[in-house]
Amino acid sequence: MNTLPVRLRLPTFGPSHMVLVIALLLLGLFLYAMVQTAAQSYRLRDTERDLFIEVQSLREQRAELEGLYTYLNSDEYVEAFARQQFGLVKPGETLVEVDAPAGAPAVQQPGQRWWEALFGAGVREAAPSTTP
Question: Where are the domains of the chain?
Answer without folding.
Answer: 15-91
